Amino acid sequence: MARMTMIEAVRSAMDVSMERDETVVVFGEDVGYFGGVFRCTQGLQAKYGKTRCFDTPISESGIVGAAIGMAAYGLKPCVEIQFADYMYPAYDQITQEAARIRYRSAGDFTCPMVIRMPTGGGIFGGQTHSQSPEALFTHVCGLKVVVPSNPYDAKGLLISAIEDPDPVIFLEPKRLYNGPFDGHHERPVTPWSKHELGDVPDGHFTIPIGKAEIRRPGEAVTVIAYGTMVHVALAAVEETGIDAEVIDLRSLLPLDLDTIAQSVRKTGRCVVVHEATLTSGYGAEVAALIQEHCFYSLESPVLRVTGWDTPYPHAQEWDYFPGPARVGRALQDVMEG
Amino acid sequence: MTDGPDLSPPRLSLHVPEPAVRPGGQPDFSNVKIPNAGSVPRPAVDVSPEDIRDLAFSIIRVLNRDGEAVGPWAGLLTDAELLEGLRNMLKLRAFDARMLMAQRQGKTSFYMQHLGEEAVSCAFRKALEKGDMNFPTYRQAGLLIADGYPMVEMMNQIFSNEADPLHGRQLPVMYSSREHGFFTISGNLSTQYVQAVGWAMASAIRNDSRIAAAWIGDGSTAESDFHSALVFASTYKAPVILNIVNNQWAISTFQGIARGGAGTFAARGLGFGIPSLRVDGNDYLAVHAVAKWAAERARRNLGPTLIEYVTYRVGAHSTSDDPSAYRPKTESEAWPLGDPVLRLKKHLILRGVWSEERHVQAEAEILDEVLEAQREAESHGTLHSGGKPSVRDIFEGVYADMPPHVRRQRQKAGY
Ligand SMILES: Cc1ncc(C[n+]2csc(CCOP(=O)(O)OP(=O)(O)O)c2C)c(N)n1
Ligand SMILES: [Mg+2]
């Protein structure tokens, strides 16, 4: 076991995978010599050489398109998009190509690859360094979508993603890289070294994709979150004193419906939280599933707490970000509802 | 025969380009071939692109080592215009220095500077007319400075304060000013290159006389939108100037990664049949002369021109970057094209219209001007203190008319 930040955990997952399997290759913008703008690939080029970890031209469609070709050859690319906000030039390659290669070739060709990208706000990054585009991926058939909320999960899930036979979108909430940020931006964040989920095995281990985790058991209401919002939800629960059960989805697709349904049948109330915009967001899918599967247990409407339906503003970041106060208000509303 | 030819196929290996030196190494620009100032011919603007292919592999230069303006590209600017150019570059440099400091003091979240590249945007602006439109990147604030856009407005944007013309919505330095021919900057690289071509096509569709300028960095030329822009510009002979600022670096990635085997970035234009020129980006006179040539071509309906400005990013990529991790600390000192401000200053002194004393005095005056603008901007607030844009501004302007669901959310936010 070692104490790791989420950056170190992500790096360790790639390191372990590259060590065990020489078909694993890592590339992206500024990823090689420098080790990535968030330093997630630092040291990998020095250790594995520049044909296994390298810098690419600034072309996201090129990065993903080339990765698809490599995957078709038999390599396992794990590529980085510098910010999720820059994935759009690659969207065609991801959604029309990577996602469908197995299906359209009846398994003749497959596309085992991972596309990592930092997501979410909280760093005053404005509209092009803050986005959470997960719903744009969960809406596509053929992709898996994973969002870790801590170093331990990040490593175990990333190794699973690299070993997965299908393309996996691996979203890294950048505001969690250095600590479990709970939305209280005016306070310093506790480093991962002081958090139990910063304890990460050095070697190989996996966490299955598709399994949620209950972060806090409770009886009164179910809070469903992922990524940064897990920590925001935990803070809101503590501050309101409501006995909520907080579920960290970890994987949005496939989704662990059993864990969700079991919890909502028990509590009868549910709040879904994400940082992405509301309309047609992932919360809509979760809410729809809950009414399908738990309708007769519900005692109040399922509520959603999300970013507003606007681009992510720069200066008004903390009025945009769905912090603990907004989540707490929804918890109170759902208890009264 | 026992030792016949070896018929097994050769083993392949992947080529990954590397810069000449890394941190700890001795800076080395011996691979940058620099022709003498004045040695590259100035063709007629209606020249056929095939006849000037070599201009994509040379470097057009006007100012020589002694500070003289020489050759066929010299002689376009008056002393008064050159003095104004020097002032604009000094202003941009002083502005950058103050804003970097303001970022370190927490008055803004982020900043991007131009150090070493001031001539490119300052001189280019002077080759355009009022009404023309630039589609800039984040490293062309000289377009605004040289057009007289108020520094205080730029600072209001950088500080995201109550007077920010963009209402706090945009990352610092992502300015917008239709009036000053400066299209709103996107954070997503290269998207605007092809938009500039579209703007130019529109001008042609409407039989207008205005032209457009597209801007991109060396690294960003790898994006698909760059290539879309070239094919549209080529097909429709759009009245657009396609600018590539090759400052040698794209964050930590040296220009060889985006350039690949092409030799130069200007050479990208040749396959599209676009006249393509390379120019000394640290030479105010050369930048202006080449831009003027391209602008005339565009305005005479002769079509697009591609220009590569050869320059060097002396500073960090942004305030989030530390270049000592990927290039030698002294690399900028070894850069063979020198400093654009010092080169123009030397020229003006040689011409007898400037002096060391007047330069020092001008620097002091300009600093005062920048400080005065900063005082005024700060009176409207900085990122974390004083006047701020309203929370209402989050919800306004997503659409011309606010739809009901956004209005509901605004009310929920308490505004
Ligand atoms: C589509 C997209 N991909 C990646 C980025 C992140 N990024 C911002 S600036 C930059 C480097 C650009 O280098 P270059 O084009 O040479 O311009 P310079 O910064 O040198 O002026 C990168 C990779 C981005 N903003 N947009
Ligand atoms: Mg560059």
From TrEMBL, chain A:
InterPro entries the UniProt entry points to: THDP-binding (IPR029061), Transketo_C/PFOR_II (IPR009014), Transketolase-like_Pyr-bd (IPR005475), Transketolase_C (IPR033248)
Cofactor(s) the protein needs: thiamine diphosphate
GO molecular function, one term: oxidoreductase activity
Keywords, sorted A to Z: Oxidoreductase
Annotated SUPFAM superfamilies: Thiamin diphosphate-binding fold (THDP-binding), TK C-terminal domain-like
Superkingdom as given in the UniProt entry: Bacteria
Signal peptide span: none
Keyword Oxidoreductase annotated: yes
Domain Transketolase-like pyrimidine-binding: 4-179
Entry's EC annotation: 1.2.4.4
Pfam families: Transket_pyr, Transketolase_C
PANTHER family listed in its UniProt record: 2-OXOISOVALERATE DEHYDROGENASE SUBUNIT BETA, MITOCHONDRIAL, 2-OXOISOVALERATE DEHYDROGENASE SUBUNIT BETA-RELATED
Protein name, as recorded: 3-methyl-2-oxobutanoate dehydrogenase (2-methylpropanoyl-transferring)
Protein species of origin: Rhizobium oryzicola
From TrEMBL, chain B:
Biological source species: Rhizobium oryzicola
Keywords: Oxidoreductase, Thiamine pyrophosphate
UniProt-annotated stretches for the region Disordered: 1-45
Stored Pfam families: E1_dh, OxoDH_E1alpha_N
Domain 2-oxoisovalerate dehydrogenase E1 alpha subunit N-terminal: 10-50
Family the UniProt entry places it in: Belongs to the BCKDHA family.
Descriptive protein name: 2-oxoisovalerate dehydrogenase subunit alpha
Catalytic activity: N(6)-[(R)-lipoyl]-L-lysyl-[protein] + 3-methyl-2-oxobutanoate + H(+) = N(6)-[(R)-S(8)-2-methylpropanoyldihydrolipoyl]-L-lysyl-[protein] + CO2
EC number(s) stated in the UniProt entry for this protein: 1.2.4.4
Taxonomic lineage: Bacteria, Pseudomonadati, Pseudomonadota, Alphaproteobacteria, Hyphomicrobiales
